[in-house]
Each structure stands twice: as C-alpha cells, then as structure tokens.
Amino acid sequence: SGLLLGHFMRASGIDAVIVERASAHHILGRIRAGVLEKTTVDLVERLGLDVRLQAEALCHDGFNLADGERLIRIDLADLVDKHVTVYGQTELTRDLMDACDERDLEVIYEVSEVAIHDHLTDNPYLTYTSKDGSAHRLDAEFICGCDGFHGVSRQAIKAKAGNSFERVYPFGWLGILADVPPCDPELIYANHSNGFALASMRSTSRSRYYIQVPLNEALEDWPDERFWDELAVRLGPGPAENLVRGPSIEKSIAPLRSFVFDRMRDGRLLLLGDSAHIVPPTGAKGLNLAASDVHYASSALVDFFLKNDREAVGDYSRKALSRVWKSERFSWSLTKLMHRFPDDTPFEREMQRAELDYISASRAAQTSIAENYVGLPV
Ligand code: DHB
C-alpha cells in the first residue's frame, strides 16, 4: 500500500517519501497470495505500471469449491461477467519498486526506531534512524501508516480513540511453492474431513498449494512427500490424479486472523492495509483490501492538495471501513465454510455440508460468492 500510494502521489505531483523497515531483498523474498481483483489491476493500470502484469498474468473466469465428493464451479464470467487476475502479489510489489527511480519516488530502506509525532496537529513529523546509524526528522503534511499489523502507526493512535475487533483461528496454513504445472487450470478450495486444502498457482509452470494444519505443527514435521500425500487426499481423486509433485522451493506456516481497528484516520495520520485490518487468507483479500484503501486515500489526498478540499480526508475512514467490513465478512465466511474447526460438533459439520449442497444448486448463492470473490465495487 505504501508503494502504490506513493506512486499515486507522485503521479499527481505531490511529494512523497517511503520510510521502510525491511530491506528490498527481504520484501521481494516474501511469498504472498496470487489473486488480484479488477480494482487492484485497474489502479496499477491507471499508473501505467501494468506492462509486465498484462504480459504475464493469467485470467481466471472461475474457481472451484470441493466438498469431498464433487467440484462446485463458481463461473465468475457467467455469474457476474468478471474475472480475477492470477499474478504473484510479490511480483506486483517488484513492479512498483522497479518504477520508483523513473517516477522519482524515494524509498529509504532499512530504517529503525521510527516514531510518529504531533499527528493531531497540522505539522506532523517522523523521526527515524537510517541504516548508517544517523538520526533523521522528516516533516510532512500527512503520515500514511502502511506499516502492517505490527507497525508503529496504529500504536500511535490512542487505543480508546477507536475499537479493535479480533478473531484468531485455531489453525494455520502450511504452504509450498513448487515449479510444477498446476493440477487444474483453476483454483480449488477443498473442504475435506482431514481439513482444508487449496490448489493455487503463480503461472502455468509454478504451483502454490496450502493445507490447514494445527497451530503447534512444525515445518520439520512436513517433509515434501508427506505434504504431497496429504494434499492429494484432501483435493480428492479428480485433482489428485493430475497432481504433479516436485521439490518445494518455499515452505512456510501462516497463522490466520481477522482484525479491524475502526479508526483509519486520526488527525493527520491515515492507516492503510494491514496496519488497520487483517483478513484470513481464504479468498486472497489482504493485498486487494490494501489496494482499495489506497484508492480512497489517494483520491482524498489529491483533493486536499490539488483542490484544497479537506472533506474527503475527513471521510476516508468511513469510506474505507465500509469496504473493509464486507471483505472481512467474506473472508471469515469462506474460512468458516471450508475449514475443519477443532471444536466443531457434528451439527456444525452438517451445516457446512448443507451450505455446500445449497451453493451447488443455487445460482443466487453462487452469484453472491462470485461478486465478493471478484471484489466489491469501490
Ligand atoms: C492464494 C492464496 C489465497 O489465500 C487464495 O485464496 C487464493 C490463492 C495463493 O497464494 O495463490
């Protein structure tokens, strides 16, 4: 969100500096989800930074829910006349980073001790220590907190100025990346009695797979062979037949969380992306939601600087949160529908089964899933 917002500021002739804790190398090594909503792609296109994305991305007209017996195809093109774009979100970050020099967007990497000051006045500033150990002060009109769940920005807002809402899930996702062709041309989200599994991809030759695991599981417990065996069971006989195995080039476990802090602006400090909200990964909404925050924040800031209009900034939190809550709801409901919760009774299991059965036969239910999956309007 920082890079995207920074590029929008520079495109309107507004000065922006990005102060980043990590190194460029670290950021580009992080594996993120691979599904982009049209809203996200449109933002990158408006910046003219979509050249590689348009050349390399895959267009997906549908995806599948597997319920242990069958595949329920959600036909996005037919149901809502839209598609999603499959492109590694890390690749999008790379494209935005590569364009910084030519667009005159300054990024200062590997800073520490970042602190936000006076954001309730008209003259907020940041202090930080740069890589060489020198101390700096950066004065600004606005500070945009694009620094993630553990960053300093949300902490700079008095806790009682907003409300935090949180749900932690009692399992994680074990993911692997492998240079093998995907088992299906489309994504498959599977609810199996052993737990959830997801078949995704980065390209026609690189696959990304996940399985639900208990939170206390260690990576060492999951050598590649065990992962492939379990994945095949959970995806079911059809997709398993086409599963091509290969050595993992990345393997990690991610916890799942839903979180919202319902004050996304406090004076001259705006929160964007994970600093204000976290979604569980089911549905790949995290980066897309950060991008829609950028949509609202950039137009509000452009109104402020170029039209001398302060109202849009005042309305940023309300507008952004309206979409945040809907994405939270969808990510939570898809997580609830597709995972096995340790405390579930046979009743909850029957509710899942009935819901999947209903979805399989109802165009209305499929349309609701489709319009959320491709991304609600901004
Ligand atoms: C991916 C991750 C997701 O959470 C999802 O819903 C779809 C795809 C991925 O990593 O490709």
What percent strand?
25-35%
For the residues shown, what is the average pLDDT?
97
Rg calculated over all Cα atoms: 21 Å
- How helix-rich are the residues, as a percent range? 25-40%
Unreliable stretches: none
Counting H and I runs of at least 4 residues, what is the number of helices?
13
Task: Please give the number of β-strands.
Answer: 19
Strand order of the largest sheet: 5-4-13-14-15-12-16-19
Structural class: alpha+beta
What does this structure look like?
It is a single chain. Helices cover 38% and strands 26% of the residues. By secondary structure, the chain is α+β, with helices and mostly antiparallel strands. The chain has an eight-stranded mixed beta sheet with strand order 5-4-13-14-15-12-16-19. Strands 2-6-3 form a three-stranded antiparallel beta sheet. Helix 1 runs parallel beside helix 10 (286-307). 39% of the residues are buried. Residues 33-35, 187, 198, 200, 208, 281-284 line the site of 3,4-dihydroxybenzoic acid.
